[in-house]
Amino acid sequence: MSSRPRHDSVDKTVLSLIKEDLDFDGVGASHVFVILGASGDLAKKKIYPTLWWLYKDGLLPAKTTFIGYARSKLTMEDIKKKTLPYMKHLEIKHSLLILKVKEGDEQKVEAFFKANEYVAGSYDQTKDFSNLNKQIEQKGDSNRLFYLALPPSVFETVTLNLKAVCMAKGDKWTRVIIEKPFGKDLESSTKLSSHLESLFKEEQIYRIDHYLGKEMVQNLMVLRFANKIFSPIWNRENIASVVISFKEPFGTQGRGGYFDEFGIIRDVMQNHLLQILTLVAMEKPASTNAEDIRNEKVKVLKCIQPIEMENVVLGQYVGNPEGEGEEKEGYLDDPTVPKVKLIVLLSTIDIVILISQCRYVHVCSFSNISVFLALNERKAEVRIQFKDVAGDIFPDGAVKRNELVIRVQPNEAVYLKMMTKSPGMSFNSEETELDLSYGSRYKGMKLPDAYERLILDVFYGSQIHFVRSDELYEAWRIFTPLLHKIESEKPKPIPYVYGRTGMDKNKE
Ligand SMILES: NC(=O)c1ccc[n+]([C@@H]2O[C@H](COP(=O)([O-])OP(=O)(O)OC[C@H]3O[C@@H](n4cnc5c(N)ncnc54)[C@H](OP(=O)(O)O)[C@@H]3O)[C@@H](O)[C@H]2O)c1
Fold it and tell me: What's 375's DSSP letter?
């Protein structure tokens, strides 16, 4: 996960628009946000900094306090020390990039930490949760948000204890935020879902897939359903293929153990990329209500058959002898990859997904999703390629297919590759772009980070950008047979060199 420091606060126009939307019943009520696993990596790099940005930008309900909870005997000063480096801005001083709290924000930072408390306790003893509850009760009647920044192994005992002694009372609500992985396959995920369903209502559970908080992922619905030009051509008669890809310019970075256990399918495909696919393929929802949107996403997933091995290409990066530093090392050279299981490698995967929904049936390789580590660039994008112009009157090969590209990261952009006359005396055609690059169209505008949007959504009770349990079920149904097959048969992956543009699929 990226934990790069932000350059500045969210743009003022964006802020005022967000603030206008934030008028909800109970905004004046007291809120307590509890971070379970407050001593951990996610809390330090993402949750505390995100709460700080929201606090600093005045987006949280006024009476909000924060309580960190974990087993470690820590003080708030310890937590502050750990997380402060991730709360700073990048500033340029004497041509040097430096990290610092923005001038004028020092007092606000102090106020933020004053609104924070820390409680140490176990994850399985009810008396410790009663202690946490006492601390929450000191804030008076409050709405309660619990963020489980914890390993999945303790989800069960923690949620049981929350339900037993930490729920809000009277007219106040309780919401629980959980992070992926939501299980390891269909069976474990269903078990977790059943457990959560036995304790909480679906509207109390917020499953975070941070891709749903990204600007361009959220833009997909607007592009598709607020533009007349796209709706008549968004079907099998006009679309040749949809390609969703994710590339990183680095390898496992010492997280080989994690990759070997969870793999890239679970880490990126089954969640982030499949979410993008459903937004690209779904029918227009009846409204922008969370349930209407999620109903349409589930319908797409139900039309996808479990992925067959014959539609999959597995790859594994090898060191580049001409590269520098980490580039010289392949996946197998990472000492954190367990040597006993060296063959189960999912550093790259390329999958063709077939959707049997009538809008797309027979669209040749409707969707291809691929994930690469250790390539030459960092990129996540969607490419929708349209079919050839019928009855082409131009010389053979002169006209290229139209392509709509939605770049999720880096440098958010939407552009349409299209043909135009070459300027000047010539009557030749050439390919060009209708280009909406956010960097130039919305110059200087700072977009909120995905976690900021999502945590704010939880405060304000919007589940549009969270994963519902039936979506999760379908996503695992699609990928589980493939995962089990890879794990049992250990197919040999195709090697590709660190830092190259991709791999040759025909190479054995
Ligand atoms: N880090 C990320 O960038 C990231 C990104 C996406 C999703 N996630 C998910 O978010 C959750 C938290 O991630 P994290 O990286 O913050 O995890 P972490 O640092 O390994 O764990 C968080 C805290 O949980 C406690 N803990 C760790 N291992 C434990 C164990 N075996 N049994 C009981 N308690 C244990 C520790 O606190 P105490 O010992 O003080 O109790 C630790 O500080 C995980 O589910 C992870 O998969 C993380």
Answer: -
What is the pTM (predicted TM-score) of this model? 0.89
Residue to mutate, 42, 122, 184, ligand 1, most ligand atoms under 8 Å from C-beta: 42
Instruction: Determine phi and psi for 158, rounding to 5 degrees.
Output: -65, -45
Q: How far apart are the CA of 102 and the centre of ligand 1, in A?
A: 29
Contacts (Cβ under 8 Å, ≥6 apart) of 489:
none
Q: Please give the structure tokens belonging to residue 505.
A: 């699929």
Q: What is the pLDDT of residue 89?
A: 64
Distance CA 136, CA 132 (A): 6
Ligand 1 within 6 A of 407 CB? no
Q: Which residue has the higher pLDDT, 21 or 342?
A: 21
CB count in 10 Å sphere of residue 410 = 12
Take atom 35 of ligand 1 and give the residue whose Cα is closest: 151
- Per the CB < 8 A criterion, the answer to whether 373 and 348 are in contact is yes
Q: Please spell the DSSP secondary structure of 33-57, one letter per residue.
A: EEEETTTSHHIIIIIHHHHHHHHHT
Mutate to test the pocket of ligand 1, among 46, 71, 73, 150 (most ligand atoms within 8 A of CB): 150
Is residue 272 annotated as part of the catalytic site, yes or no? yes
Cis ω on the peptide bond leading into residue 448 (within 30° of 0)? Answer: no
114: tokens are 């004053």
The reported pLDDT for the residue numbered 483 is 92
Number of CB atoms found within 10 A of residue 78's CB? 15
Contact 433, 418 (CB under 8 A): yes
Tokens of 9: 């606060």
